[in-house]
Amino acid sequence: MKDMQAQLEKLRTDAAECALIRDLATEPKKRDLFTRLAEHLTVLADEVDRAIAAAGREQKRND
After folding, report:
1. Model pLDDT, residue 59
2. Which domain of life does the UniProt lineage start with (predicted)?
């Protein structure tokens, strides 16, 4: 579970960094690329977050 939480934090950090790069980019193609990367990483983080929540619910049922 700690590994999943660490991965979640990494994905959220990476998404935020991509958004920052996007905001600083002057070229439209780079802005678009980093927008898509930030969005994709956010989706992945959301999926990991849901998996953590589901694992927590499963653990509570087994306790």
Report:
1. 82
2. Bacteria
Distance CA(23)–CA(16), nearest Å, equals 11
Place of tokens 């935020």: 16
**What is the number of other CB atoms lying within 10 angstroms of the CB of residue 34?**
19
Query: Is the CB of residue 19 less than 8 Å from the CB of residue 41?
Result: no
Q: What percent of the chain has pLDDT above 90?
A: 84
Structural domain containing residue 15: 1-62
- The total domain count for the chain is 1
Residue 6 C-alpha from the chain's centroid: 11
Query: DSSP label at 27?
Result: S
